[in-house]
UniProtKB/TrEMBL annotation:
<feature type="domain" description="Copper-binding protein MbnP-like">
    <location>
        <begin position="34"/>
        <end position="234"/>
    </location>
</feature>
<dbReference type="InterPro" id="IPR046863">
    <property type="entry name" value="MbnP-like_dom"/>
</dbReference>
<protein>
    <recommendedName>
        <fullName>Copper-binding protein MbnP-like domain-containing protein</fullName>
    </recommendedName>
</protein>
<dbReference type="Pfam" id="PF20243">
    <property type="entry name" value="MbnP"/>
</dbReference>
Length: 267
């Protein structure tokens, strides 16, 4: 009876060992190419963002109800644990994040060399070099941006960020519209890049597609390092409109600081 039990235990132990080896072999195989998903999860401070109804308070005691958050994610670069980098092809590296659309929250990057990735870098907006190529050099981006109302004109180019809604303040007691759009204005291009360390390695394999979950704290657009009061930009019947002027470079600085990586799924 004991011999039978010992044999059974031995078989189980061998099975576990073989299973572990098989799993390890799979996760350690860094040949070939795979995919990685970047998920952009919008929040306001520590709260998940809810459009249209959620009251959001700024440090300037203004209350915002946000109706739109869109931004162009571009120029993705991934860094491996050994320091080498993979630059995602620029022609494919444009995504429009849109809080109101399920398709505007997760972006899949394909044909990524297998490896252990520890850092992600991306731009917010369309870099000036790409813009200067004109329509022929911008692939499907122009059509995507036009459909998403993220394109101004050939003179002004793209909206890199669109942040809209209504607000009230101690001096503006009736709900008043606001619009914050970043992009090319005069000599300021307002494109910015973000580099983030991953809390755990993203294991890109032919059999593993990691998902990098990023939190975008949209409160920092006007309430980051630089504090912008919407009531100071209120033009009466036009509402508070920030699409240029001295505030826009300050908002661009804020935008670069509103992203963090919450966690990585290696499933």
């Amino acid at each position: 009876m004991k011999n039978t039990l010992y044999k059974a235990l031995a078989i189980v132990a061998i099975s576990i060992t073989l299973g572990s080896c098989s799993s390890d072999d799979s996760s350690n195989d860094v040949s070939g190419k795979g995919k990685i998903i970047l998920e952009f999860d919008n929040a306001y401070g520590t709260n998940d963002l809810i459009l249209n109804t959620q009251p959001n308070k700024t440090s300037n005691n203004e209350i915002l109800k946000i109706s739109m958050v869109k931004y162009i994610v571009s120029n993705v670069v991934l860094t491996k644990a050994d320091g080498t980098t993979f630059t995602y092809p620029k022609s494919k590296s444009y995504f429009i994040a849109d809080e109101a659309s399920a398709e505007g929250r997760e972006f899949e990057l394909s044909d990524v060399p297998a490896g252990d990735y520890v850092k992600v870098k991306f731009g917010i907006g369309v870099d000036e070099e790409q813009w200067k190529l004109g329509a022929s050099g911008q692939g499907d981006l122009l059509a995507q941006a036009d459909d998403a109302e993220m394109f101004w004109s050939w003179a002004a180019g793209y909206k890199f960020l669109a942040f809209e809604g209504t607000f009230t303040s101690p001096t503006v007691t009736t709900a008043t519209s606001f619009m914050v759009h970043t992009g090319k204005t005069g000599t300021d291009y307002n494109y910015t890049e973000v580099t983030l360390d991953l809390p755990t390695k993203a294991l890109v394999r032919t059999t593993i597609t990691p998902e990098v979950h990023l939190i975008t704290d949209v409160s920092k657009i006007i309430d980051g390092t630089n504090k912008i009061k919407l009531s100071d930009n209120n033009a009466g019947g036009m509402g508070a409109m920030i699409m240029g002027g001295a505030n826009l470079p300050l908002i661009t600085q804020n935008v670069s600081g509103m992203f963090r990586v919450d966690h990585v799924h290696n499933d």
